[in-house]
Design goal:
Radius of gyration: 21 Å
Largest sheet: none
Distance between the termini: 81 Å
Length: 243
């Protein structure tokens, strides 16, 4: 019995040691996730407003349909490239690609200033921030394992993408509104799910090494995408037309 007690004590000490090392890195890594995400949102906002207030840039971007497609393809390419090669990229390169992506996204989002009033854009942004913050907190603090919802959410996301493509040909206003409500519900759920997944991934990082920080950077990219999509779907529901 004494030997077993000693073994349990050693095991407990080892677990406590691992826990303390994790607790030293985990808060800093979580801060990096939200700092990078906030930085990306600021860059996106500045680029979107800058392009929207420049007639020459707006003509360059929206005067030629090919330009929009080039930007769209470039954005998708950057996300897939960064995600697929994150283990081979340096932290500096990955961060630069994230910044470039957020800037390009701002350029493509500049068109919302032509469709919606500045006031409604600002109001929807704060609604998005509040909703996102609440769901991120739920995902971070809940004791319930949300892992099993991941597959369902991915299936819904795929369905939403397909339905959105179909509606590009149907041009149904009612169907678009329905898809917008589904999109809001989907990205509300994804925000909570992704927050928990990021927390679990960072909890396994033993230090502030470059590889650990790249995990945090990918978490920031994921939450950034959740925020942007949630914002756009809410804008389609609550945004007031500028025409």
């Amino acid at each position: 019995m004494e030997l077993q007690d000693l073994e349990r004590m050693v095991a407990n000490e080892q677990r406590q040691g691992r826990s303390s090392s994790l607790s030293a890195a985990f808060p800093a890594l979580m801060r990096k996730v939200y700092v990078w995400m906030a930085l990306a949102l600021v860059i996106t906002g500045i680029c979107a407003y800058g392009v929207a207030t420049s007639p020459a840039l707006m003509q360059m971007v929206y005067g030629n349909r090919a330009a929009i497609w080039v930007l769209f393809i470039a954005e998708i390419g950057l996300v897939f490239y960064t995600t697929a090669r994150i283990n081979r990229l340096s932290l500096g390169t990955a961060t630069t690609l994230f910044i470039v992506y957020s800037a390009l996204n701002g350029v493509t989002l500049s068109g919302i200033f032509l469709v919606y009033t500045m006031t409604s854009i600002a109001q929807v942004f704060f609604i998005t921030a509040g909703t996102f913050g609440a769901m991120a907190l739920v995902g971070y603090t809940t004791k319930k394992d949300l892992t099993r919802f991941g597959g369902l959410l991915m299936m819904l996301l795929l369905g939403l993408i397909i339905a959105s493509v179909v509606n590009m040909f149907l041009h149904s206003t009612m169907f678009d509104l329905i898809l917008s409500y589904i999109g809001v519900a989907l990205f509300v759920g994804l925000t909570a799910w992704d927050s928990q997944q990021i927390k679990q991934a960072l909890a396994m990082q033993p230090d502030m090494s470059e590889s650990s920080q790249k995990v945090a950077l990918m978490g920031a990219l994921t939450l950034y995408l959740d925020f942007i999509n949630l914002f756009l779907y809410l804008l389609r529901i609550f945004g007031r037309s500028d025409n």
